[in-house]
Amino acid sequence: MITSKNNINSNSPIAFFDSGVGGLTVLNKVKKILPNENYVYYGDTLHMPYGEKTKEQLIEYSDNIFKLFEDMNCKAVVMACNTTSSVIYEDVKNRYSFKLFPIVQSVSEILSKLPINRLGIFATRATIESNAYQREIAKYNKNKQVFGQHCPNWVHIVEENALKEPKNIEIVRNDLEKMLLNNPEKIVLGCTHYPFLLEILSQFAPKDMFIDPAESFAQKIKDDLEKDGLLNCEKEHYERFFVSSNPQLFQQSAKMFYDVKETPELLTFLNAV
Ligand code: DGL
Questions:
Q1: I need a labelling partner for 29 at 20 to 30 A (CA). Which of 38, 63, 82, 231 fits?
Q2: Mean pLDDT of the chain
Q3: Sign of the C-alpha dihedral computed for residues 145, 148, 154 and 159 taken in this order
Q4: Would you say residue 4 has pLDDT above 90?
Q5: Ligand 1 centroid vs 52 CA: distance in angstroms?
């Protein structure tokens, strides 16, 4: 049962959404530093991959999810999805009653201050085509060379829980080799699904070459909620997970990053097919 809209207060939940399990890499980091919060997570598995969708589609899917979060009285919504942050954040940022945290815009200042010149970005097609990382980083530092590369199969490999298949390890290795031709000093995992592949990537390049932006993103979320007096002070807390298809696969694929204890609730929207 979804409760109706009330006043937002510090005990209201923090909501996350993504196209599937990817946002769990962010929830995981946030929960480590904010263990006493109530959490709601929506994985839009029916519409995965978001990286292949149009701006109009992404706005439609997100609007349904955001209205659900408003009905659940969420105090903050974490756009734990680089694709939606890159493509639709500017269009939707003032439409809702909660605080909205977009991943790309939130981490770009920190990326701009890295003491390096050549930065690689692995991300979805939509994120790369939007040039959002280049644009946001350039707001703070115009001198960095930023190389974006789209990795077409990676989200599917993670969602299908097929990380151990040799052909998939080969796909990841080939994509990495292509990126390494640019001689990047660091590579940002600019899609929340990609940290699931870190162990594979680090078989072929030093692990500390890869940056998971979720770490600094989580700290920013904490600092901001703290500043606004919005951290939960109650002892009791809860988590709720929703998906738009295949709850069992979600629960299974999630395991590497998050123990989703109960099978997620299936929740779809009539207008989003
Ligand atoms: N994990 C999301 C991102 O960070 C979307 C991946 C997808 O569904 O294409 O971009």
A1: 63
A2: 95
A3: positive
A4: no
A5: 9
Q: Is the pLDDT of residue 162 over 60?
A: yes
Strands 14-18 and 76-79, sheet pairing: parallel
Tokens describing residue 121: 């970005």
Calpha distance 203→51 (Å, rounded): 26
- What residue ranges line ligand 1, CB within 6 angstroms? 18-19, 22, 48-51, 81-83, 124, 127, 155, 191-193
- Digit-coded pLDDT (tens) for 72-125: 999 999 999 999 999 999 999 999 999 999 999 999 999 999 999 999 999 999
Nearest CA to ligand 1 atom 8: 49
Residue 95: CA count within 13 A, CB half-sphere: 14
Separation of alpha carbons 76 and 69, rounded Å: 9
Side-chain half-sphere CA neighbours of 120 within 13 A: 21
Span from the CA of 133 to the centroid of ligand 1 (angstroms): 14
What's the N-to-C CA distance of the chain in angstroms?
23
The two three-digit tokens of residue 127, written as one number? 């994120």
Is pLDDT of 273 > 60? no
